[in-house]
Fold this sequence. Notes:
This protein has 247 residues and is α+β, with helices and mostly antiparallel strands. 35% of the residues lie in helices and 11% in strands. The longest helix has 15 residues, at 231-245.
Amino acid sequence: MRLKLRIWRQTGPTVPGTLVDYVAEGISADMSFLEMIDVVNEGLTKKGEDAIAFDSDCREGICGTCSLVVNGVPHGPDRGTTVCQLHMRRLKDGETITIEPWRAAAFPVVKDLVVDRSAFDRVIAAGGYVSVNCGGAQDGNAILIPKSVSDLAMDSAACIGCGACVAACKNASAHLFVSAKISHLALLPQGDVERRRRVVAMVNQADAEGFGSCSNEGECEAVCPKEIPISNIARMTREYVRALLGA
Ligand code: SF4
Ligand code: FES
């Protein structure tokens, strides 16, 4: 495959960036999207030019580190898929592909396609600890949790903290991410002790980080690689109001 690329280059957080044209040649349709950029970077390095900076780690859709907007869509054209699991066969030979970083004030660009997502870490840290009773191990069936509830909690816990939901939202809202983190603990009895304090602290921290509010557009759910449903946002709102009312 031969592709024309338009890639966001930005040398630092305070320097204006711009889209720069590149050509990717000799690309196998079986390569992943990130391997295609690796090939481009190898060519740049051989020419003595600065390689394109981008984030990745597991390259298996697990860690949430990869963060590219491909042709305007966070994580690219495949639903329920991280960009590290996007394969070149999904794109057309000769196609022009625009690659940009997540765009949100709370995720400032560090360099090229790398953004600082430490705001998410601070939201998680604001959630604090979960109390666990010490002592002898409880019977496995001492705390009964219906399968439907444990499934909901597990679906919420699938959030990998990538930030695509923020990048897709016109308000740069982090509601889907925060609500997934709130939900997976609020649904389970183990998360009940700090439930009220947790939701207020995490929502307030997200506001303090500069994430926007939610206007129910649904782009977050559409681009989420773990298909976290926006019903979590309704649950988070209920949890928040309940906590404020002391109910
Ligand atoms: S809710 Fe989805 S898009 Fe948002 S951070 Fe979690 S996994 Fe990524
Ligand atoms: S690099 Fe880990 S999810 Fe993409």
